[in-house]
Design a protein that fits this description.
single chain; 140 residues; alpha+beta; 5 strands; 52% helix; elongated
């Protein structure tokens, strides 16, 4: 009985404009005014499908001033990250750096990359340097 009552409650809420009364499992039809009001609110709601820009008076100079205020945080980020990598290395003996350079010091060709391809390119550069002395390196 309880499961069928829950299913009826779910179906009514899903298909018709009902509102719940404070007592459980009691459904009362919403008035047309409330339904219209809720529909209007839902129509004005923000959604990625309907982006809206409302009541803004920010000129480009003010915008860029605000963007410039966050620069010190971005500038501090590499040092903070490297300090945590050093702490990690102290505990695990695995050393990581923000940038790792591998290859010839006077390289004519340098590959700069990040992500999954780093290990593959590292091995390719090692193999190319081993097979023939080329001026190639990679930075990751």
């Amino acid at each position: 009985m309880l499961n069928s009552l829950r299913q009826v409650k779910f179906n009514c809420l899903k298909t018709t404009p009902y509102t719940l009364h404070p007592t459980p499992y009691t459904l009362h039809p919403a008035s047309k005014e409330v339904s219209a009001f809720l529909s209007a609110i839902r129509a004005r709601a923000l959604s990625p499908d309907r982006p809206v820009l409302r009541k803004t008076a920010q000129n480009p100079d003010v915008y860029f001033q605000a963007r410039e205020t966050v620069n010190p945080y971005y500038a501090a980020c590499p040092n903070i990250m490297q300090s945590y990598m050093d702490k990690f290395a102290a505990q695990t003996t695995r050393h990581y750096h923000l940038l790792d350079y591998h290859g010839a010091i006077d390289a004519e060709r340098v590959i700069i990359l990040m992500g999954l391809g780093c290990e593959v390119v590292h091995e390719v550069v090692s193999m190319m340097l081993w097979l023939s002395p080329q001026k190639i390196s990679c930075k990751r």
